[in-house]
Write a structure and sequence with these properties.
- The protein is 42% helix and 8% strand.
- It is built from 4 helices and 2 strands; from the N terminus they run αααββα.
- The protein starts with 7 loop residues before the first helix and ends in a 30-residue tail after the last helix.
């Protein structure tokens, strides 16, 4: 890894965008629990994914990375600054459907945006920007050196 990874500013930017991404995912899960996914939540996920990718892109030449480590953001990028016409049914019985211009990003499934942010989390972790789990030697009060030996369990 280069010394760039130890620079405080890029590290701060990555952690800041990771908090934004997590906030957007939290909103997605909350909306989903209520079966009421908003276009604003979809928008926030799309923006967060694009910005997350941009912040990590600075590290694209790190030797630890392969091409396969980078998630495909092209389906999202190619929709930026574009609109599509979407047919919308009227809520009034007998009224004809109408068409409306909407951001093309809305045609990308929200679940794909969530997956994309999770793939970017994996990339950030591989670059060393993720939480590190400490090796546990005592899990729930169990002695890791105890092998059971010849001890027999006897019920009184």
């Amino acid at each position: 890894m280069t010394d760039e990874r130890d620079d405080a500013e890029p590290r701060r930017m990555i952690y800041e965008i990771r908090r934004r991404v997590q906030a957007a995912r939290n909103r997605y899960w909350a909306d989903g629990v209520d079966s009421d996914l908003s276009t604003e939540t979809h928008r926030e996920l799309a923006i967060a994914a694009l910005q997350y990718h941009d912040v990590l892109y600075e590290f694209r030449d790190e030797s630890i990375l392969t091409e396969d480590d980078w998630p495909d953001v092209e389906p999202l990028r190619k929709r930026v600054n574009k609109t599509v016409r979407r047919r919308e049914q009227s809520d009034v019985f007998g009224e004809p459907a109408t068409t409306k211009e909407v951001p093309a990003v809305q045609t990308l499934p929200t679940e794909r945006l969530v997956e994309l942010t999770e793939e970017l989390d994996d990339l950030a972790k591989k670059l060393g920007f993720g939480a590190k789990a400490e090796e546990q030697t005592d899990v729930y009060g169990i002695d890791p050196d105890w092998d059971g030996g010849d001890d027999e369990y006897t019920a009184d």
